[in-house]
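Note to self: keep these together.
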Amino acid sequence: MPTDTISLQPATVGERLACYWQLCKPNVVALMVFTAWVGMLLASPDAFPLRAFVFGTLGIALMAGSAAAINQVVDRHVDARMLRTRGRPIPQGQLAPRHCVLFALVMGVVGFAVLWSGVNRLTAVLTLLSLVGYALVYTLWLKRATPQNIVIGGAAGATPPLLGWTAVTGQVDPYALVLFLIIFTWTPPHFWALAIYRKADYAKANIPMLPVTHGDEHTRLQILLYTVLLVVVTLLPFLLGVNGVVYAIGALLLGAGFLYHALMMIYTRRRRWAIKTFVYSIVYLFALFAFLLFDRFLPLLLERIPVVF
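Structure:
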């Protein structure tokens, strides 16, 4: 049954607010905001960028939530057929699609206005392009057009650290592009691991994810190759001389963990290793960006800690 025809279930104000909160994919937005924070702090190691932090966080979060809501409106019929997503508010009939569209538009406009007036125009425009790239280009076209959908569409989800950087500096610098490249390279092995675990769902919904079109073996190999590339890319901050040995060691250890998971997916061929790899990839990204911060600020902390013999 099309989700538009499901009668809305009665709900309290609190339950309705919880549904709108879920519509924004808060866990995904939280990871995006965290990487944006890292971009902000790395761009200003000598002073806390309070204005960019406050208004940048608000604007980026609002526009990311708007993109997530639009994604769920567009994908509502697909979501209703997939086990992973059929419990979302729209397929469950808890929210009307037209109300969700209005909600998303208001959030997007407010978020853009906050970034335009409270941060800078470059960050506002780049965030808008990211929203359009994910909510429209990826969701409406790429997702259904090619098994390389997540590779191409991953560019939209890789922008938060770049946005955090531009929120502080007002310009795009090479180091910020490296931060973008890290998440861009991380996205395929992260999402393809989930796609293997949920292969039946994607096949049922007729979404051409790589495991559906090319099989699990090919996808596992691609995950391994992208993971090797990711390990190389994560060393760029060290090779460029921006980050030091502490970061390099952390990146290599985390990369070794990712490679281990990718190899276990190939060696065991067990479905549970796909979801384990997906979960590890999320922890990996949090930890990697934490290492970026820790390494960059460690010298500053040591300078301020008196040494007593």
